[in-house]
Amino acid sequence: MGGTSAEREVSLSSGRECAAALREAGFEATELDAGPDLCARLGALAPDVVFNALHGRWGEDGCVQGLLEWLRLPYTHSGVLASALAMDKARAKEVFRAAGLPVADSLIASRDEIEAGHVMAPPYVVKPGNEGSSVGVHIVREAADAPPELAPDMPARMMVEAFVPGRELTCTVMGARALAVTDIHTAGWYDYHAKYEQGGSRHVIPADLPDDITRACLDYAQRAHDALGCRGLSRTDFRWDEARGPDGLVLLETNTQPGMTPTSLSPEQAAHCGISFAELCVWMVEDASCDR
């Protein structure tokens, strides 16, 4: 848990919640804040299973997964390749397109290009190609006269994606089962604060959708999970433009390390399906392995 990514605080919260649930279920759980000495500390602990509650870079992009494979420590969630693919938004889109899944048009551009002028007709979204939790995301509205000014800590190259209007939907996959569809309501857009602060968003589950849209979300989420080669838990996010019907449903991205905080979506969907938070955590431990 923890780590050094921009999502450190979220990961600490996820880790605390999962460790508490596992202790209640009878496991001996050690909370380990991942730092430069991670390899040595894991070697000293010699755990039966590593529960990966890291989010963002290093913990979600295949790096820590590679370390765990090297140490031959069974771990939860997706393996090296699926984690790396899902975290790289451009390459994930290539996988989704090859699987026949609907995605928004996008391109990769340098910071200088993005700040010099519109590289795509507004409205569009600028986002880092390898971050989660809406970190560093800019929405450029249709009437915008100028491109966005990017924060100094943003990467040298970023994704520019056509803005997809409509409702924010998400679906969790638990192994070979797509659980449910949630409709996310916010006062503005679903940014970092809306995701993780109490009252920042309202989750409607099951989403009040036409049956064909619900079925499509469940199908697309499972197909995205399988196409990337995900294991354990994943969550796929969508936007749906109601005015366009089925053609308005667009897959945004797949998260291989969904949040496990009190306001997180995947635990809510599991609970909707009759799976308690503790049962979800136990399932992930029992599903853990190497060679994922």
Description:
The chain has 292 residues and is α+β, with helices and mostly antiparallel strands. It has 3 domains: 8-84, Rossmann fold; 88-103 and 165-287, ATP-grasp fold, B domain (D-amino Acid Aminotransferase, Chain A, domain 1, 2-Layer Sandwich), CATH 3.30.470.20; 106-162. The protein is 34% helix and 18% strand. The protein has 10 helices and 9 strands. The protein has helices at 8-24, 38-45, 63-71, 80-87, 89-98, 111-116, 192-196, 211-228, 265-272, 277-287, and strands at 106-110, 124-128, 138-140, 157-162, 167-174, 177-185, 202-204, 233-240, 249-255. The chain has a 5-stranded antiparallel sheet with strand order 7-6-5-8-9. It has a 4-stranded antiparallel sheet with strand order 1-4-2-3. A hairpin with a 2-residue loop joins β5 and β6 (177-185). α1 packs across α10 (277-287). The longest helix has 18 residues, at 211-228.
Q: What key phrases describe this protein's structure?
A:
292 residues; alpha+beta; Rossmann fold; D-amino Acid Aminotransferase, Chain A, domain 1; 5-stranded antiparallel beta sheet; 34% helix
